[in-house]
Amino acid sequence: DAGITQSPRHKVTETGTPVTLRCHQTENHRYMYWYRQDPGHGLRLIHYSYGVKDTDKGEVSDGYSVSRSKTEDFLLTLESATSSQTSVYFCAISEKQQGVTEAFFGQGTRLTVV
Amino acid sequence: GDSVTQMEGPVTLSEEAFLTINCTYTATGYPSLFWYVQYPGEGLQLLLKATKADDKGSNKGFEATYRKETTSFHLEKGSVQVSDSAVYFCALVDPGSARQLTFGSGTQLTVLP
């Protein structure tokens, strides 16, 4: 357990509303990631962070923004939610163990946009 | 760019059957390879890993061998149990990629008693 907590765990929101998902970690990891999981697509990277205020886009970043003002928190914001953003969102951290990068995941947030 | 291709699912087996889930990859560098497992309602957990050619990762009776010549990392288990029912993801990390994992699409395994 890498001390990763996601909140909320479930959310239903209406199309066009803003939504923020939170990822909190307790072990001072530098790298944090947001993925979305959809049937037939596996996990796809939305955004990642390599330090406070240092973020970059992933494969499916359109419609999403992120912020990292503290090491322990990585926020994912949907500025104006759409039905195509209904998904399960996972936060992850990575660390190097014996020279090998390993990722550890939160429990996920199930978001439904109606 | 990097990519991972997994066999299509779902896969349904009887308890004690032999399991193979195929995984092949494309990478620009010399990646590390992983299998992750996701039980219902949970996040992903690392199942096993391999970092160089001919390495064999193993855990909980599962095995996978890093085959550079065929760019493959197939997951195997000799005798599956009902508790192995889950979704399995093959993934890679390219050394030059800011530690980003690239995942396959996942394979749903159901084991029947």
Characteristic key phrases:
heterodimer; A: 114 residues; mainly beta; seven-stranded mixed beta sheet; four-stranded antiparallel beta sheet; 11 strands; 0% helix; globular; B: 113 residues; six-stranded mixed beta sheet; 12 strands; 50% strand
Please describe what this structure looks like.
The complex is a heterodimer of chains A (114) and B (113). Chain A is mainly β and 114 residues long. Chain A has strands at residues 4-7, 10-13, 19-25, 31-38, 42-51, 54-57, 64-70, 73-78, 87-97, 100-105, 109-113. Chain A contains no helices and eleven strands. Chain A is 0% helix and 63% strand. In chain B, strands 2, 5, 6, 10, 11 and 12 form a six-stranded mixed beta sheet that branches. A four-stranded antiparallel beta sheet of chain B has the order 3-9-8-7, with no helix packed on it. In chain B, strand 5 and strand 6 form a beta hairpin. The A-B interface holds A 31, 33, 35, 40-45, 48, 50, 56, 58, 90, 92, 94, 99-108 and B 4, 6, 32, 34, 42-46, 49, 51, 89, 91, 93, 98-101, 103-106.
Secondary-structure topology with pairs:
The complex is a heterodimer of chains A (114) and B (113).
Chain A: E1 4-7, E2 10-13, E3 19-25, E4 31-38, E5 42-51, E6 54-57, E7 64-70, E8 73-78, E9 87-97, E10 100-105, E11 109-113
Parallel strand pairs in A: 2-11
Antiparallel strand pairs in A: 1-3, 3-8, 4-5, 4-9, 5-6, 7-8, 9-10, 9-11
Chain B: E1 3-6, E2 11-14, E3 19-21, E4 23-26, E5 32-38, E6 44-50, E7 56-59, E8 62-65, E9 75-77, E10 86-93, E11 101-103, E12 107-112
Parallel strand pairs in B: 2-12
Antiparallel strand pairs in B: 1-4, 3-9, 5-6, 5-10, 7-8, 8-9, 10-11, 10-12
